[in-house]
Automatic annotation (TrEMBL):
Residue intervals passing through the bilayer: 12-35, 41-61, 73-91, 97-117, 129-148, 154-179, 200-218, 224-241, 248-267
The organism's place on the tree of life at top rank: Bacteria
Name by which UniProt lists this protein: Prenyltransferase
Organism: Flavobacterium chungbukense
Entry keyword set: Membrane, Transmembrane, Transmembrane helix
């Protein structure tokens, strides 16, 4: 039992789970825009997420705090290195414009983690902007990259889907911020710190309603029903979110929402 828990914790701590969520959103993008499955694109995002998230999570721990590196962190470092090599491999299978945009997304991730400007903290610690940077990166990686790599002309539907994807990720992060309220630095000015937990939940509910309604413009009835199930599920996660919840509430269950959404689509075709 202890071994299974260690394996499960490694699965979460190494960012494989969040990478699977990003992979699921890429597959959802393929589905909604009728894009043929592109292995290079999907795996580029999957392994890129592992590299990006592990860089964000462990850079400060190792580089700044100088804490001893345990066996799990060493294995995560090896996994991240292998993922980086695979990211490089799949990068050269993408269209040139996709490569350029992916470099921009990587630059934003680096800005989020490293203090580029003199006498300034990294973007992760800029008051009130963390949630927007993360949401934009997710939209860029899981929707914009697959879309432009498929060389599809920009339409109103693309921008609607971008807004929907941003709202979805924004709401997912709200749940994280509610659970992290007791531990977050007050200077971060997260949404719950700024408006309180109750209003944050109301905000999450309020955003999910137009998220679903916007789908009426471009989704089939079949897709709208699936989206409604996903929205109700996420609303329940918001409703029951509080600072006393286990870390698994967000790190596994909430981050699994995109996977749940993708599986509903995949098995209902």
């Amino acid at each position: 039992m202890k071994l299974l828990k260690q394996i499960f914790n490694f699965y979460l701590n190494s960012s494989i789970h969040v990478a699977l969520s990003c992979y699921a959103l890429v597959r959802i993008t393929f589905y909604f825009f009728h894009i043929q499955y592109d292995e290079s694109m999907a795996l580029f995002v999957f392994f890129g997420t592992i590299v990006g998230y592990n860089f964000v999570k462990y850079d400060a721990l190792v580089r700044v705090k100088r804490k001893p590196v345990g066996i799990q962190l060493k294995i995560i470092a090896v996994l991240s290195l292998i993922s980086l090599i695979l990211v490089g491999y799949y990068f050269f299978h993408l269209k040139r414009i996709t490569q350029i945009v992916s470099v921009v997304i990587f630059a934003i991730t680096a800005l989020y983690t490293l203090p580029f400007f003199p006498n300034r903290k990294n973007a992760r610690n800029w008051a009130g902007v963390k949630i927007y940077i993360v949401a934009l990166c997710w939209v860029g990686a899981t929707l914009v990259l697959p879309y432009i790599n498929a060389e599809i002309p920009f339409t109103a539907n693309f921008f609607i889907k971008c807004i929907q994807r941003f709202v979805l990720v924004f709401v997912l992060i709200l749940v994280f911020e509610i659970l992290d309220l007791a531990n977050d630095d007050p200077h971060l000015q997260t949404v719950p710190q700024t408006i309180g937990v109750k209003r944050t939940k109301i905000l999450g509910f309020s955003l999910l309603v137009p998220f679903w309604v916007l789908g009426i413009l471009s989704f089939t009835l079949h897709d709208l029903i699936i989206n409604l199930i996903m929205v109700v599920t996420l609303m329940l996660f918001i409703f029951f979110a509080n600072t006393n919840r286990s870390k698994y509430y967000t790190s596994f269950w909430v981050e699994a929402v995109p996977v749940f959404w993708w599986l509903m689509i995949a098995f209902s075709k």
